[in-house]
Amino acid sequence: MKRVSNTLIKFRIRLVLFFITCVVFIMTIRLGYVQFVLGEEITEKAVESWLRDISFQPDRGKILDVKGRELTTNETAASVILIPQQIKNKEETAKHLSDILNISEADAMAYVSKQASSVRIHPEGRKINKEQELALKQLNLPGVYLAKDSKRYYPHDDFLSHVLGFTGIDNQGLTGLELVYDEKLKGKSGSFSYFSDAKGGKIPNLENVYIPPKDGLHLKTTIDLDIQTIVERELNYAEYKYRPDGAIAIVVDPKSGEVLAMSSRPNFSPAHYQKVPSSVFNRNLPIWSTFEPGSTFKIITLAAALEENLVNLEKDRFFDHGHITVGGARLRCWKKGGHGSQTLLEVVENSCNPGFVHIGQMLGEKKLFSYIQRFGFGEKTGIDLQGEGTGIIFKPEQVGPVELATTSFGQGVSVTPIQQVMAVSAAVNGGYLYEPYIAKEWIDPQTEEVVEKNEPKLKRRVLSEETSKKIREALESVVANGTGRPAYIDGYRVGGKTGTAQKVGPDGRYMANNHIVSFIGFAPADDPELVVYVAIDNPKNTIQFGGVVAAPIVRQIIHDSLKLKNVPIRKDGLPKKYVWPEEPLEKVPNLVGMHKKDLLQDLSSFQVQLSGEGDIVVDQSPEPGTAVKRDAVIRLYLGK
User: Fold this and answer.
1) What are the pLDDT digits (tens) for 322-341?
2) Beta-sheet pairing, 607-611 with 633-639
3) Residue 70: CB partners within 8 Å, gap ≥ 6?
4) Are residues 424 and 351 in the same domain?
5) Which is nearest to 101 in space by CA: 117, 112, 85?
6) Are residues 142 and 236 in the same domain?
7) Measured between alpha carbons, how far is 470 from 473 in angstroms, rounded to an integer?
8) Do 190 and 213 contact (CB within 8 A), yes or no?
9) pLDDT at residue 437 above 90?
10) pLDDT more than 70, % of the chain
11) What are the phi and psi torsion angles at 88 (to 5°)?
12) How many CB atoms lie under 10 A from the CB of residue 626?
């Protein structure tokens, strides 16, 4: 038998010891690396494998009007969350869920049998109603949890629907302000976490982890709910009276670009947007729709001519034959036979197309279209809503004598309502073109402090104050003496311009008896606080003129809005020119203090109703100076 030498044995022992030492060294290094380098990461993964999360949604920020009144808010709702590993009797639980949530037992069984740490029942278990919530609470089913959730609530139903927009099942903004400012409104989710073993059971003696949700910021808008209510009321009435294809109304502060009210028809309820076609809720007509503006666009032609000192409204004259021929095209006036000899101010008052073609020719292509661009046409206004249109204006190479002529009176170009409103605001506010906006302030829901504020954004100055003053005076004359007379308000100075535009059909031709009639007005005329635009698309059973249909609506919006704003009654405005069959109004005299026997000689134009005992008038209604129709009822209160 061969003997192994001691030297070889020692070598083998040393070799084994060396390998053992190397292994121990490597393991030590590895343990140290795991302990000191990967330890935190591994611990986090272990905790994650033990933790089960139930998420809690934050309250979405409210949307408020300019006075802090709620336009949107939230309602508390519960959502069902299942922990399948904790459900002991799956068949019984599935049956209860089926009955309460109105889903099939097969679907309920699929939910309770899922191999997942937590399961949401979507969408039937999301934001359930109070009766369903109470039923689940009473059953107290193992593994069935109710997480606090909320859903959007619109206290004014369909008011301001296109502006506010709506949210989806996860409270995410889908349209309107809800979408544009979703990041600030939505807040951050919170969670409730507990430690669970491999079977899903809670591990005792380990503390739960609760991270509270962070609610979204409140948005205070420029919208005035009182004025918005007036606008909604008037559009509802117009919809009832004229059965139009559509309707639009916008009210802005011309000195800042703040949108005070905006609405359109058809509209919808944000809480039930699924009940209307997507074409209704996806199209905010005041900023999206584009159409020929008609005569309201003449304000831009007038502004350009005045700014360039090309016309004198009182001294310059134009003879209207009822038509004008340009480049072989015969362009007609709305009045058959024409207006004859007029001052240029009367051209404006009468909305005479040939007269404005003449003004456009004086300006020429380059000057007119440079002003059109300066006033913001052909580009977005920048309003903080999605889906804004840009309109269509002629490119320089497309403009010939006919295009210049038709553009002068608002035909052949395409603009959006919000472009028109901001352009006219610039024309009457001293010449300043502002960017319209709705988001005014962001408010912390906990401290109620303003954390961010938007200021008016001036784009550029387009006119001088002198020119703007002349435009205000001319447009006030339109309302007192011209086509805008139905917008006249006794005691308030109102300026404005009518518009009647033919619509283009699918074949590219103008449609017969199908117009968009509009009126844009402002008040007080010498220092405007409001600019109001109303357009009615194809009104039925009426003469389709802006002065007939839209002007009275604007009149009512301006009248009621100025009263709400406590704008004082004035007597320095232009008197209204009455045309048959219009009947002049008569002012009620001051009768307080008069003796009963002396009344008849002063009140032959009115119907008098007396009440009270005594011989002396102590009060009266309407107030002295109020303009009323002949045969109006005057109520007098007698005393001693």
Assistant:
1) 999 998 889 989 888 899 99
2) parallel
3) 62, 63, 64, 155
4) yes
5) 112
6) no
7) 5
8) yes
9) yes
10) 91
11) -80, -45
12) 17
The CA distances from residue 137 to 96, 100, 146, 158, 200, in Å, are 12, 11, 8, 34, 21
Run of H or E residues at 185: helix 182-186
Taking the C-alpha atoms of residue 87 and residue 121, their distance in angstroms, rounded to an integer, is 15
pLDDT for the residue 208: 62
CATH number at residue 157: 3.90.1310.10
Q: Are the C-beta atoms of residues 557 and 488 closer than 8 Å to each other?
A: no
What average pLDDT does the segment 273-302 reach?
A: 93
3-state secondary structure of 548: helix
The residues assigned a catalytic role are 295
- Identify the residue whose tokens are 């990461």: 41
Cα(151)–Cα(256) distance, integer angstroms: 34
pLDDT of residue 48: 55
Amino acid (1-letter code) at residue 57: Q
To 10 degrees, the CA torsion angle through 346, 350, 351, 356? -40
Residue 575: inside a domain? no
Q: How confident is the model over 475-533, as pLDDT tens digits? A: 999 999 999 999 999 889 999 999 988 887 787 788 888 899 999 999 999 999 999 99
Q: How many structural domains is the chain composed of?
A: 4
Separation CA 379–CA 418 (nearest Å): 11
Task: Write out the DSSP string of 466-489.
Answer: HHHHHHHHHHHHHHHHSTTGGG-B
Residue 331 DSSP code: E
Q: How do residues 402-420 score in pLDDT, each as one tens digit?
A: 999 999 999 889 999 999 9
Return phi, psi of residue 282, to 5°. -90, -10
Residues 414 and 383 in one domain: yes
Token pair of 214 as six digits: 């962070």
For residues 85 and 199, the answer to whether their CB atoms sit within 8 Å is yes
DSSP state letters, 56-69: EPPPPPPEE-TTS-
Mean pLDDT, the chain, rounded, equals 87
pLDDT surpasses 90 at 397: no
Q: Which DSSP helix (H) or strand (E) runs through 122?
A: none
For residue 239, give both structure tokens.
């919809």
- Residue with the larger pLDDT of the pair 55 and 27: 27
577 belongs to a structural domain: no
- Cα–chain center distance at 85: 48
* CA 439 – CA 625 distance, rounded (Å): 41
Range of the domain at 590: 586-639
Summarised one tens digit per residue, pLDDT across range 324-383 is 999 888 998 988 889 999 999 999 999 999 999 999 999 999 999 999 999 999 999 999
> How many Cα neighbours within 13 Å face the side chain of 56?
15
The pair of three-digit structure tokens given for residue 10, joined into one six-digit string? 């020692």
User: Pairing between strand 495-504 and 317-320?
Assistant: unpaired
Q: What is the pLDDT of residue 41?
A: 61
* Pair 412, 478 in one domain: yes
Of 327, 351, 328, nearest to 338 by C-alpha is: 351
CATH code of residue 606: 3.30.10.20
Half-sphere exposure of 428 (CA within 13 A, CB side): 32
Q: Do 72 and 130 share a domain, yes or no?
A: yes
